[in-house]
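Re: [ENG-882] Designed sequences occasionally contain unexpected residues at chain ends

Forwarding the minimal case from QA. Structure tokens:
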């Protein structure tokens, strides 16, 4: 098997990415922790925004179905490059092979969704109280869309935003995570092929900027960026949100998620076991929808928790390229240190920790760990925070209402689920008195969302929505129109104002 560096460089060449430089952002593979190469940082973000803003004046006039054709071509190019791009996701983000390929499939799926959407940007006809009048709403392109993405989904989140923004008439500027610049270069090269086939797209329609905090801040603060979609930590959102709001632009924030599940007394325990294992362990616990808290009914806890601990002890850990591996590396040593700190805090509170050990046999600078199952004495301390690592805190409960109250007592509100065969329990969990999250599932885990539903959460998760459903509205501006086709001028609410 090739080294991650050699394999990544080969893939980049095959996708048409120019040779990497000798300075700039350092791109590493978490598989071995070693350097792959350097990516040049964008020196003049303002000029990039200027090109995109100029492109908006042309692109907004292109009929939406024609805009959809560009996204259709992007989907075709992604299908052709799926194996290479999926492999690059594995090499740079550390995902196992099926998850790397699955992320590219998600990009293809959102392209398909957006192509259909390009003929369905519907407004409403509204009943009016004035005779001889018609009232309706129309939707128009909003402007340049800045997209800031995180390392854990290095390409799919860009596609969620870009596919919708482009069919809605908005140019896009992408600022990827500094930890995954190579997958961004590859995706941009694939996009350039689609643009070339499209033929007459304006220059600046799809841009890529690379760099650190200053590059992101330029997108956040520039008044020409009408929409700012940012995916990352709640801490990041606390800074981005007020700055975007201060200039009255549209923020789409996808932030932290301290996701939970409830295993009820009536649950199908075999089904729950499989679902929880993927939700808590998949992507080495580095999904925003990763399951981090588990409430198990006391009547089934003694049977269920040991089975779950056995699964944790048996999962294959190692190079994510190898067949059979289920847990690849953490993104870097900072993630590993954060995990160990949280486990130490849990132990100090009296928790029983299953797993959580560090594997040093993969190289001194790689970060591999055994997923940790932590039986907590109370819902406190590290349980209330999101640690971006494979830690699942387990607590027992006796009363469903009390469990839901604990479930909702954390600041985040992204994803949730309940495992039950009791219809009343399921409906209660999905009701207004149930989970306060943006994603509420029954008999599946909180992760693995499909692109057909709007993705996002409440509270400190930011309130943003991306992907399917009616999330397209976040990329457009709404106008209410009233047309008078009569010779009279009746006023609303019965107002009279006679001037002659």
């Amino acid at each position: 098997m090739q080294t991650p560096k050699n394999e990544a460089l080969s893939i980049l060449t095959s996708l048409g990415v120019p040779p990497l430089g000798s300075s700039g952002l350092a791109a590493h593979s978490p598989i071995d922790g070693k350097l792959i190469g350097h990516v040049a940082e964008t020196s003049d973000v303002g000029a990039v925004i200027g090109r995109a803003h100029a492109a908006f004046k042309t692109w907004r006039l292109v009929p939406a179905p024609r805009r959809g054709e560009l996204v259709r071509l992007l989907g075709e190019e992604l299908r052709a490059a799926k194996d290479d791009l999926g492999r690059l996701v594995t090499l740079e983000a550390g995902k196992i092979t099926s998850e790397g390929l699955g992320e590219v499939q998600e990009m293809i799926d959102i392209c398909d969704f957006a192509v259909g959407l390009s003929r369905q940007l519907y407004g409403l006809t509204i009943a009016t109280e004035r005779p001889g009048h018609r009232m309706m709403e129309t939707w128009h392109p909003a402007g340049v869309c800045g997209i800031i993405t995180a390392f854990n989904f290095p390409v799919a989140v860009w596609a969620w935003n870009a596919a919708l923004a482009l069919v809605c008439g908005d140019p896009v500027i992408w600022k990827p995570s500094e930890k995954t610049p190579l997958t961004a270069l590859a995706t941009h090269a694939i996009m350039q092929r689609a643009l070339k086939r499209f033929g007459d797209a304006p220059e600046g329609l799809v841009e890529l900027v690379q760099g650190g905090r200053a590059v992101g801040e330029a997108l956040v603060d520039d008044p020409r960026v009408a929409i700012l979609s940012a995916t990352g930590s709640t801490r990041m959102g606390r800074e981005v949100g007020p700055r975007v709001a201060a200039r009255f632009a549209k923020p789409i924030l996808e932030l932290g998620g301290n996701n939970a599940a409830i295993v009820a007394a009536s649950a199908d325990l075999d089904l729950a076991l499989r679902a929880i294992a993927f939700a808590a362990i998949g992507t080495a616990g580095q999904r925003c929808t990763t399951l981090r808290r588990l409430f198990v009914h006391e009547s089934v806890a003694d049977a269920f928790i040991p089975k779950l601990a056995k699964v944790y002890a048996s999962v294959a850990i190692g190079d994510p390229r190898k067949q059979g591996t289920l847990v690849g590396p953490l993104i870097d040593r900072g993630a590993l240190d954060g995990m160990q700190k949280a486990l130490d805090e849990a132990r100090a509170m009296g928790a029983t920790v299953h797993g959580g050990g560090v594997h040093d046999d993969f190289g001194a600078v790689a970060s591999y760990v055994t997923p940790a199952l932590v039986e907590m004495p109370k819902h406190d301390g590290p349980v209330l925070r999101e640690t971006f690592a494979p830690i699942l805190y387990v607590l027992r409960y006796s009363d469903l209402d009390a469990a839901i109250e604990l479930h909702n007592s954390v600041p985040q509100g992204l994803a949730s689920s309940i495992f039950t065969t009791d219809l009343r329990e399921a409906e209660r969990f999905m009701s207004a008195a149930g989970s306060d999250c943006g994603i509420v599932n029954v008999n599946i885990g909180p992760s693995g969302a499909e692109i057909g539903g709007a993705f996002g959460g409440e509270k400190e998760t930011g309130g943003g929505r991306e992907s399917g459903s009616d999330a397209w509205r976040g990329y457009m501006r709404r106008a209410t129109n009233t047309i008078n086709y009569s010779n009279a001028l009746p006023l609303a609410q019965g107002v009279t104002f006679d001037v002659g």
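QA comment: On inspection the terminal residues look reasonable. The mean pLDDT is 97. Proposing we downgrade this to a documentation issue.
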